Amino acid sequence: MKKPKVIVVMPAYNAEKTIEKTYKEIPEGYVDKVIVVDDASRDRTVEIARKLGLKTIVHHKNKGYGGNQKTCYKEALKEGADIIVMLHPDYQYDSKKVPQMIKPIIDGRYDMVLGSRMMSDGARSGGMPIWKIFGNRLLTALENLVLNLNLSEYHTGLRAYNKEFLKNIPFELNSDDFVFDQETVVQAVSFGFKIGEISVPTRYFKEASSINPKRAFKYGLYTILTLLKFVASKYGIKKYHQFGN
Ligand SMILES: Nc1nc2c(ncn2[C@@H]2O[C@H](COP(=O)(O)OP(=O)(O)O)[C@@H](O)[C@H]2O)c(=O)[nH]1
Ligand SMILES: [Mg+2]
Q1: Which of 206, 176, 182 has its CA nearest to residue 91?
Q2: Less packed terminus of the chain by CB within 10 Å, N or C?
Q3: Atom of ligand 1 nearest to the CA of 14
């Protein structure tokens, strides 16, 4: 079988202090290309990404985290990726886990793999604040119930997909904000793709986390709204093209 083309995409926003470390810890020999999409950062993210020799695309206006990922995935598919790994460039996730992230996809076991911080006590020992652990657990329980899954978390910034998944879900219809990540999981369920997870460690420090309680609360509400849309779509109450009807 032909070796699959693996592309790592990094949705970047003010990542000048962390992008190099994040990139350099990706193990050699597994990744064919790294694409950085800069969402109108006000720091030297673009300069550093280009110096590292990474393909760098610049949004001249800030589109938001979901808007950034839309560009990431369109570019990766245009470049002929078979497997796409989304990695936050904020050094919060362990880049060394990329090979383990893509293995279940290469083996054909899953279409989408989430790097979970909540499978072990990794979140706590990595310094994740208690209120974030609580919110994560609460939303995860609700999402598991509604989506009939048994995942340990849905909110990670380390994800991998196969190209069929990204080609078949209408991710363009998703939000330009943080809830984009939840919408893609719901799409995996509604379009019948298989989701798996592996355990990844996490690190919390100033540059790794900018989400304050107010922003997180809004994200929680939009996540619940997304679940309501899924239920309405599943039971034919309302049609959502985003979820396949
Ligand atoms: N494109 C884009 N990305 C953003 C924006 N704000 C944050 N991010 C990125 O979204 C990711 C998650 O944000 P982060 O602050 O790390 O959240 P946390 O780790 O969950 O607290 C990071 O990779 C940020 O670079 C934004 O306005 N636009
Ligand atoms: Mg972060």
Answers
A1: 206
A2: N
A3: 25
To 10 degrees, what angle do helices 180-190 and 130-147 make?
20
Contact 111, 188 (CB under 8 A): yes
In 10 A of CB 122, how many CB atoms? 17
Domains of the chain: 6-240 (3.90.550.10)
Any ligand 1 atom below 6 A from CB of 163: no
Mutate to test the pocket of ligand 1, among 88, 91, 207, 223 (most ligand atoms within 8 A of CB): 88
Instruction: Mark residue 67 as left, alpha or beta (left: phi above 0; alpha: psi -120 to 50; beta: remaining).
Output: alpha
How far lies 90's CA from each of 94, 105, 147, 185, 233, in Å? 10, 24, 29, 22, 35
Instruction: Give the chain's residues under pLDDT 70.
Output: 1
Q: What is the pLDDT of residue 121?
A: 83
- The answer to whether the beta carbons of residues 156 and 115 sit under 8 Å apart is yes
Using the atom order of ligand 1, give the atom closest to the CA of residue 12: 25
